[in-house]
Design a protein that fits this description.
Elements lengths: L4 E4 L2 E5 L12 E5 L8 H6 L42 H16 L6 E5 L6 H15 L9 H15 L4 H7 L3 H7 L11 H9 L31 E5 L20 H32 L14 H10 L11
Helix pairs in contact: 2-3, 3-4, 3-6, 4-8
């Protein structure tokens, strides 16, 4: 929430853990991570689906929840969190996802709980991105193909937990489309959990060990396929085995020189390919239901023309609840 408490008609109708006077979350490490609600994504649609340069107005009267993250949880990320109000929607979403990934990939046994006020929009956005990122690294849901992981996250993380697509479309609040179109922004190495695992697995340097001697993830060590719970304050529980948490085994260090490096780089390339396949599958499905029509790709591979047609045609033209 970007608020400490939700106020309707002058009454506090709900609040978040960060302002709980009863200290019912004293056993948790709380992270207050304000992120715009679904209403903001109408501006995304009105800008022809361009998230770059779209910055939330943090000076609005109702916005009173500052970003608050314990320093010990962010030391490895090299992000200037004091600048969060100047980030556009792309950078803000990327940095929050990096934080999530670093917490999931930490050395301790704590669990991770991610949620917004209702669990319908911002929660599935980040749970879905987290799930797809770890799947693309081959760390969870390893048996699922791109279409299958897309089906899982749409059905479970979004619709089973209450996302009202028809209502959001009628208001132009395109957070659902933003999520899967955003996959193009997280294909790089900096979002890969394999990179973090490689760094954690490196032993102390000696004369016989070079940077080329990096780790490789064996298929049988890819860990649990346990589903992530979709329960945005961000909460870490200090007790092991927390609901919604999962673990995977550390990678094996294989000092095989250049061949190992090539295998790791291939894994990163595979990550990009897998995320692109999921995004393409989503766009095709969205086209056949909401009315997104494919156009000839531009030389740059951008989908600007496709989204331009979508912007003109998606206003619930010819859309039925049954089709959605």
């Amino acid at each position: 929430m970007v608020e400490n408490k939700k106020v309707k008609f002058g009454m506090n109708v709900t609040s978040s853990e960060k302002v709980d006077k009863a200290q019912r979350y004293a056993d948790f490490t709380l992270l207050s991570i304000p992120y715009p609600g679904c209403e903001f994504f109408k501006e995304y649609k009105d800008r022809d689906y361009m998230a770059e340069g779209l910055i939330f107005n943090w000076k609005q009267d109702y916005v009173d929840a500052p970003l608050s993250i314990p320093d010990f949880l962010t030391h490895s990320l090299n992000i200037d969190w004091s600048q969060y109000q100047s980030w556009d929607l792309v950078q803000q979403t990327q940095n929050y996802l990096k934080l999530l990934l670093s917490l999931v990939n930490s050395d301790d046994d704590s669990g991770l709980l991610v949620h917004c006020i209702s669990g319908w929009d911002r929660t599935p956005l980040f749970i879905s991105l987290l799930r797809l990122s770890l799947w693309a690294d081959g760390l969870i849901h390893t048996s699922l193909k791109p279409a299958e992981i897309l089906y899982l996250t749409v059905a479970y993380d979004w619709f089973l937990f209450g996302h009202m697509l028809v209502d959001r479309l009628s208001k132009g609040e395109e957070i659902f489309f933003f999520c899967f179109n955003f996959l193009k922004h997280i294909t790089s190495e900096e979002f890969s959990a394999l990179k973090t695992q490689r760094r954690k697995s490196l032993p102390a340097r000696d004369a016989g060990f070079t940077l080329e001697d990096i780790c490789m993830l064996r298929r049988k060590d890819r860990g649990s396929t346990t589903s992530l719970g979709s329960d945005f304050s961000l909460v870490m529980e200090s007790s092991p085995g927390a609901a919604g948490s999962f673990t995977y085994e550390a990678v094996e260090l294989v000092p095989a020189g250049a061949p190992t490096q090539a295998a790791w780089l291939a894994a990163l390339s595979d990550r990009e390919t897998r995320l692109q396949e999921v995004r393409s599958a989503f766009l095709a499905a969205y086209s056949s239901t909401v009315g997104l029509r494919a156009v000839a790709p531009s030389p740059s591979g951008a989908i600007g023309g496709l989204l331009e047609q979508f912007a003109r045609g998606v206003g619930l033209r010819g859309i039925s609840s049954n089709a959605l």
